[in-house]
């Protein structure tokens, strides 16, 4: 069952139920009002006649009964033995009834039990009169009211219920018909409104399905131009598509760059090995040169694969090992290894404050080696590279400063991108992969830290890493 049909059924049936309840309430109030009004008129007229009968002599009282005060009202006077004493001229129209029998029981309502559920808005008739219902000679219903008189007699008044019964019967037949038509109308209106309301959902679904089939993440779902849940859903889907598009483009660039970087050392290794295989009489010196070049390219390939594995670990969201460590001691170890890589540059530690942090020692050491290795690569012979460790109340800050070639302002925002290398960097380090700073940023982020770079071309570069202190 579709969402549109479910919504239509829910809201249509709910509206139909409310309509049925309203119709039943209207019927009950309408019917109760008619019968209560008739009872009030009957009781008032009968009490008026009873007062005149009690205040008059026997002959005068009989004349009062023979001239009813209201048209259609039938009056009869009975003595204490139940014999008819006097009656109005139209008494034959009303059913025969003994007032003492009515007075012996409670009042009987003239309507069905459903109508009796609603309260009466008419004042209740005073005791000791009793109301009843009887069937007349013609088969119509009559409303009876028996009232005892002070002299021992009883007055019985009757009025036909035919007019009220006919009106209420017609209304009772109209209630289910109107309720059914109203429910059908509510269902139809709910179906149309549900279709209009969820039309944007159908559009979003079709667009999302088309994007999934075509893999065109640059496409966007249409904006319904509404400030409701559907509008927010469209905006959220477009934001998600933008993120997917960006990630998809980054993945494509990464695959293309990785393929290119892997192809170069593999080609060099294959060419040198093929050269040695095809020339078995090659002089030892040339053979050694070819093998050494293949070995260098194999080492470069191993480093590149290791860096790619680190980034794959980063993309997979795998957590790092964490424990307390002495950051200053780890910096000394990394500094000692980096000095072996220097080619005429002066490496110095200008400041080293003790600091304890929580993290992965291997990754932190890799971070420092990446920064020092970059500084060595892009600093000419005779240049100066300094390593500094500062500690504040909440953070430890690692500073690596060099007097190298620097980074151009247009390249600075991209230095953390994977495989990104500025033109001067390519000329100074053709064997580089452009993954070092991307790995460095991932390590810093995994330790809840921050890394920033400030650089001026021809002056030098300063890299700052802020890491939170351990407990």
TrEMBL record:
Residues 195-249 form the HAMP domain. Keywords: Kinase, Membrane, Phosphoprotein, Transferase, Transmembrane, Transmembrane helix, Two-component regulatory system. It is found in: Membrane. Residues 257-471 form the Histidine kinase domain. Its EC number is 2.7.13.3. One of its GO terms (cellular component) is plasma membrane. It is an enzyme of class 2 (transferase). The keyword Cell membrane does not apply. The chain crosses the membrane at residues 7-29. It catalyses: ATP + protein L-histidine = ADP + protein N-phospho-L-histidine. GO terms for molecular function: phosphorelay sensor kinase activity. Pfam families: HAMP, HATPase_c, HisKA. This is histidine kinase. It comes from Thermomicrobium roseum.
């Amino acid at each position: 069952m579709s969402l549109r049909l479910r919504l239509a059924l829910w809201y249509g049936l709910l509206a139909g139920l409310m309509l049925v309840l309203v119709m039943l309430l209207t019927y009950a109030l309408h019917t109760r009002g008619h019968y209560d009004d008739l009872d009030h008129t009957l009781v008032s007229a009968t009490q008026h006649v009873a007062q005149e009968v009690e205040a008059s002599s026997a002959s005068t009282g009989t004349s009062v009964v023979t001239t009813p005060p209201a048209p259609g009202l039938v009056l009869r006077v009975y003595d204490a033995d139940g014999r008819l004493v006097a009656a109005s001229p139209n008494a034959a129209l009303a059913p025969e009834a003994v007032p003492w029998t009515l007075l012996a029981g409670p009042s009987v309502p003239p309507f069905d039990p459903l109508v009796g559920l609603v309260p009466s808005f008419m004042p209740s008739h005073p005791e000791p009169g009793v109301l009843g219902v009887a069937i007349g000679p013609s088969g119509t219903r009559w409303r009876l009211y028996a009232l005892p008189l002070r002299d021992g007699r009883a007055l019985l008044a009757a009025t036909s219920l035919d007019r009220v019964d006919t009106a209420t019967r017609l209304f009772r037949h109209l209630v289910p018909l109107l309720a059914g038509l109203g429910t059908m109308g509510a269902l139809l209106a709910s179906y149309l409104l549900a279709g209009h309301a969820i039309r944007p959902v159908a559009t979003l679904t079709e667009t999302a399905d088309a994007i999934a089939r075509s893999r065109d993440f640059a496409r966007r779902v249409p904006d319904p131009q509404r400030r409701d849940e559907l509008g927010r859903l469209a905006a959220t889907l477009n934001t998600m598509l933008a993120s997917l598009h960006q990630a998809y483009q980054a993945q494509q660039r990464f695959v293309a760059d990785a393929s290119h970087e892997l192809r170069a050392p593999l080609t060099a290794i294959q060419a040198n090995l093929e050269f040695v295989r095809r020339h078995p009489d090659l002089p030892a010196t040339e053979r050694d040169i070819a093998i050494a070049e293949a070995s260098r390219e194999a080492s470069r390939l191993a480093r590149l694969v290791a860096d790619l594995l680190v980034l794959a670990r980063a993309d997979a969201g795998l957590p790092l090992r964490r424990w307390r460590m002495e950051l200053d001691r780890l910096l000394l170890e990394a500094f000692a290894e980096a000095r072996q890589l220097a080619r005429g540059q002066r490496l110095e530690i200008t400041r080293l404050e003790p600091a304890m942090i929580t993290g992965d020692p291997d990754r932190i050491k890799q971070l420092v080696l990446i920064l020092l290795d970059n500084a060595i690569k892009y600093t000419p012979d005779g240049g100066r590279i300094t390593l500094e460790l500062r500690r504040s109340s909440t953070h430890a800050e690692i500073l690596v400063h060099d007097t190298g070639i620097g980074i151009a302002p247009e390249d600075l925002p991209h230095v953390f991108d994977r495989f990104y290398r500025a033109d001067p960097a390519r000329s100074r380090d053709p064997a580089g992969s452009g993954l070092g700073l991307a790995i460095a940023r991932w390590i810093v982020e995994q330790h809840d830290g921050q890394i920033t770079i400030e650089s001026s071309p021809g002056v030098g570069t300063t890299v700052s890493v802020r890491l939170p202190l351990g407990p």
